[in-house]
Sequence to fold (660 residues):
Amino acid sequence: MKIDNTKAQMRKGILEYCILGILESSDAYASDIIETLKKAKLIVVEGTLYPLLTRLKNAGLLEYRWEESSSGPPRKYYSLSKSGKTFLKELELTWEELQTAVKIITNTPK
Amino acid sequence: MNKTININLSGIIFHLDEDAYNLFKSYLTEVKNALESQEGREEIILDIEARIAELFALRLEQSRHEVITIDDVNFICDTLGAPNDFKEEEESNKTHQKETKSKKRLFRNPDEKVIGGVSSGIGAYFGVSMIWIRVIFLLLLFTTGIGFLSYVILWAAIPQAKTTAQKLQMKGEPVNLSNIEKSVKEELNGVKERFGEFRIESKGNSKSFLHFLERVANFILQVFERVIKFIFNFFNIILIIFASILAFVLFMILFGIIGGAWNVGSLNFVSINGNLLGLNVAEAILGKGIDLTLIRIGALLVLLFPLLGLITIIAKALGKTLTKGKLFNVIGGISFFIGLAFVLYAGGQVANSFKVGATEVRKIKLSGDVFDIRTDLLEYNKGFLFEIDDQNLRIDNVSLQIKKSKDSTARLIMKHKARGKNNSDARQRAQVFDYPFEQNGGYLILSECFSVPKEALYRGQELKLTLHLPVGNEIFLDPSIENLIFDIENVHNIWYGNMVGHTWRMSQKGLVCLDCEEIEYFNESEMEDTKEIQLKIKDLESEIKRLKNE
Fold:
């Protein structure tokens, strides 16, 4: 069992939740999402994100529209779909539950 | 001065240094390969290309350069991550999937070897313990000798894993049908892509003929390489099929052992009239004693292990892993060697009981002349070499010779040979045999087989008959004795197979044919002689007629 592997697994699990969370407040370009995630040190390299975004979009959780860019090619502008919003609500609930659960377990004096 | 290459990324044109272009191209290819099995691959790649274009544009703006250098490409690689990072997502999707491993290649394993590391290499390739492979090789070696030949060929054909990377590849992704299918597809795609590139490149770069030739040569080489890989993948499938067949045969043999027959050599698993032929052979040689039991148990133990091994291999190839622990391997290995010991011990016992030979001679005077010799033509259930009933072992190893008698009596001499552990054992066995024959007037009726008591067991018994005929004796060799005769001397040197069906007379020099047609049977020089003689006779006859008429 490798520690890196476990870490990556934990991070991966909440990555979807975080992406949906970023898009809840405002629509964003892929590069914006990447920047935010990078700042939070949730991802190290960008490559990880593209397959994930496409998958969420194909699952109907995300929508996008093309926006012209002044510096480069047109960019995808992502937003939450209706089902994405309900999905996020459920994830938020689960996250709360998990947090409490972990807190209870790790804080219980032995 | 540097050459630049133009590329189009998401509709924007970039100028890349040649080395930057090469690096970038191989990076993109690897990313594409990494995303091979990903859903929505095309779209992901477009997104990634768009992102790269964005980053390139940003870099150019910052540096105020016009050309993308290798530094920019390296920056892209760092930012987007190694090709394998793109794959991560797919795995979180299917958590049960195995770790990413590089594609497997067949190597000889230099770290774990007895001879050339072939077995451990193949074992690693199929993800099974090398013990299985060794056992199969050993089995093939002992039974047919194919083991030796195939080992040498594989030794020569399979490269040794030298570098660490090769050793990793040796133990890489397990070979199963879905992986084979995947890699076949990859190869085909690769060929298509190369072909597309080749067309584009040859259009764009038709500067010099030499350049063009170089590209053609490269292209052919690559196609060739891919074809070889493609064939190798089929080789995998063939291996799986071969393993299946081998497993089936082993299963049949095991079935035979349990059912009673173990005779592998003649593959007599089939029961005829409720009589297992293989069992007959085993019983005739081993008796019903401890040796038979030993060999049966031994063969069962020896065969069970490789059979289980083959089933594991096939299951693996079909993508199902059968859980089996170290203990299983150890027990399987021990049972194999115990079984082998049983078989070798019993085999040694049997070989030992064939050590010494002895001969018993019986001379029988025949009353009067023999003018016809034939066999009884009794239909009997002919097994392999012999058949067995409740009391007797009937052996068909009988041969007949015809010689000149020294006096005026006809005699039949029987020489019965048998083998045994020691002299007295062999002599005793040689003494007990029963050969049924009959003299009915001038007819001598022989039998095609003789019998020994069942308890005497089969110990290489054979019966040599010699019929001694007095000079002047005429005898008809019935075609039914063809199975008994092998090489009977005669004055014409006629092949024995052509001697039957004719009447012969014993002369001082040997047997003379009385009714053979010379054209059929005589060898060429003799034929010429006879023709001459016949012509002379005809001449003489016409001469006589002429004289008579006169």
In short: Residues 89-101, 260-278 of chain B have pLDDT under 50 and may be disordered. The longest helix of chain B spans residues 209-259.
